[in-house]
Specification:
This protein is an alpha/beta fold. Helix content is about 35%, strand content about 15%. Helix 5 links the parallel strand 4 (about 120-125) and strand 5. The two termini are about 25 Å apart.
């Protein structure tokens, strides 16, 4: 069972102590599984992955509560996967933060989403290629997350995202995605992206990947995650990367792979959140 390293309000406090320690010699990877809350069986399979993956759950999906309870029982870290406006105008899930909201409206919807997932210790964006480019909503978002002592991960669905930089301006514990594992739902492609994640981690010391509860992605992770210990690679939670030896070097070291794909990551075979029997 994987226990969360810290609760959100303890992230920086723990970091002050851990900064006194020598950084881990083993390269570290963190993996977020997004879009949880619709497919129950796929979601359960994601929760049960044999490593400290972080689970990002949509606020009001039909199976969001059940998956959050399962994740908490297994000691997995939970994030709010906050739907946000996208450039393509793709319909948004319930609980979306949109470009036409004022500050009061945006904060109210965000709080409702967090209330639906009380064990969430951070937030990342679902889609959001439009909203993350807009300064005012990002300031409102980061101010509220700072007030609630939560962290933020920029999924980088837009090359012009302001989210990470604005989070940093609030001294908010924050990261941004290095690799999307499954832009293509193809086993060989996902394996290749997983190896890309490992290469970044071995070069920089750590890396952050995002995947989705697709059968193809889950199959790759179920196969390769148990092998990483033998390769000297450690799978860690997001909060484990938010200690100062990683956090303070974020801006200096993040842009090794700026040619990585940027998009709203919509399932090419249809809307990623449709319910089926899988």
């Amino acid at each position: 069972m994987y226990k969360p390293l810290v609760r959100a309000g303890q992230l920086l406090t723990l970091g002050l102590f851990s900064s006194l320690l020598t950084a881990a010699e083993s390269p570290r990877i963190a993996i977020i599984i997004d879009d949880l809350g619709y497919h129950l069986k796929r979601g359960q399979r994601a929760v049960d992955l044999p490593a400290a993956v972080t689970l990002s759950i949509l606020p009001h999906g039909p199976n969001s509560q059940a998956l959050a309870r399962r994740a908490s029982k297994r000691g997995k870290e939970i994030m709010l996967h906050a739907p946000m406006s996208n450039i393509a105008g793709i319909p948004l899930d319930d609980g979306a933060l949109t470009s036409d909201m004022n500050r009061q409206q945006l904060v109210a919807v965000l709080r409702q989403g967090l209330a639906a997932l009380p064990d969430a210790i951070g937030v990342n964006n679902h889609m959001g290629s439009l909203l993350t480019q807009q300064a005012a909503p990002m300031h409102w978002l980061m101010a509220e997350l700072s007030k609630q002592q939560l962290f933020f991960v920029d999924s980088r669905t837009s090359a012009d995202s302001l989210a990470f930089d604005i989070a940093q301006s609030y001294s908010l514990p924050s990261l941004k995605r290095d690799v999307f594992l499954d832009n293509q739902r193809d086993h060989a492609f996902i394996e290749s992206q997983f190896q890309q994640l490992l290469r970044i981690a071995k070069k920089r010391g750590w890396a952050l990947g995002i995947g989705h509860p697709y059968p193809e992605t889950l199959a790759v992770l179920e196969e390769y995650l148990p092998q990483l210990k033998q390769q000297g690679v450690e799978v860690v939670t997001i909060s484990a990367l938010l200690t100062p030896q990683y956090f303070v070097t974020t801006e200096q070291k993040f842009d090794l792979y700026e040619d990585l794909p940027i998009n709203d990551h919509i399932n090419q075979q249809g809307h990623s959140n449709s319910i089926d029997s899988d």
